[in-house]
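Re: [ENG-882] Designed sequences occasionally contain unexpected residues at chain ends

Forwarding the minimal case from QA. Structure tokens:
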């Protein structure tokens, strides 16, 4: 999950997702005068009350719709009136909002102990599903799977991530699900990373395994992010794809088997390969 942007914290010292590794984090992008957001609060408060000591951290990300919602005195008054006692952080410049690709109030994102986004929901409702996800992720705390955190994403260690399609579906956006799990292809020049020139690593959008580095990215002019080699040959799997009457080599994530794109032999030196990826199958994380 992207790091939280800096803001003013209410009810807490500043928190970071890095510091919350090992806990489950429930983020609500909201604003205090949004009616739909306020409707979610009884449930959100109840999650905080029932699960905080079991390893859940609830954070309200105050994302202003109007100028007046940026003023600290108004935010403080709103939080007090609504009797919120979990941490709230201001996001006046909508930096966290943009980093998470949010576009509506409220949006819920649940992050697991390893810092991966495991659930996302826009709007009110779906509280039973949210509770189910929270319980599932809390149950993962303290198990030996804790080793998956951080360094576990650098190199595929042979331990596959296996989920049913019904399990993948709520974890991915519909666009990402279509590409990753149904071998779809995003339209050229529409993806988020086609023109991304920032320094960092590209992870599998489904399981977070590290796949490509910005160091091997090049401008292929195709409208899809292109790389001349993966970060580690172990992290990707090749598969012959005979769809559309042509034989192409499909590239999958070695850990979770999700479809990422294809590889062609018209790339630049030193490999001569062109890994043609779908932006939506990747999650870019800038290096600090
Ligand atoms: Zn994966």
């Amino acid at each position: 999950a992207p790091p939280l942007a800096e803001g003013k914290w209410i009810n807490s010292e500043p928190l970071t997702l890095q510091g919350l590794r090992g806990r489950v984090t429930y983020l609500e992008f909201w604003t205090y005068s949004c009616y739909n957001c306020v409707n979610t609060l009884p449930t959100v408060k109840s999650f905080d009350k029932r699960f905080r000591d079991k390893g859940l951290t609830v954070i309200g990300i105050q994302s202003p719709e109007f100028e007046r919602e940026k003023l600290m005195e108004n935010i403080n008054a709103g939080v007090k009136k609504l009797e919120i006692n979990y941490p709230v952080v201001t996001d006046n410049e909508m930096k966290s909002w943009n980093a998470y690709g949010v576009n509506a109030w409220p949006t819920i994102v649940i992050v697991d102990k390893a810092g991966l986004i495991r659930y996302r929901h826009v709007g009110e409702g779906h509280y039973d599903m949210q509770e189910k996800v929270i319980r599932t992720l809390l149950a993962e705390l303290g198990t030996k799977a804790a080793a998956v955190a951080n360094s576990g994403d650098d190199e595929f260690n042979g331990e596959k991530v296996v989920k049913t399609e019904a399990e993948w579906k709520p974890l991915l956006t519909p666009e990402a699900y279509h590409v990753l799990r149904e071998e779809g292809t995003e339209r050229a020049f529409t993806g988020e990373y086609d023109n991304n020139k920032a320094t960092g690593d590209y992870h599998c959008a489904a399981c977070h395994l590290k796949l490509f580095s910005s160091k091997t990215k090049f401008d292929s002019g195709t409208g899809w992010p292109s790389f001349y080699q993966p970060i580690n040959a172990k992290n990707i799997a090749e598969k012959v794809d005979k769809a559309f009457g042509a034989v192409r080599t499909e590239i999958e994530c070695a850990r979770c088997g999700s479809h990422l794109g294809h590889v062609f032999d018209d790339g630049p030196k030193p490999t001569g390969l062109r890994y043609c990826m779908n932006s939506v199958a990747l999650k870019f994380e800038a290096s600090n």
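QA comment: On inspection the terminal residues look reasonable. The pocket of zinc ion is lined by residues 204, 206-207, 209, 253, 255-256, 258 (CB under 6 Å). Proposing we downgrade this to a documentation issue.
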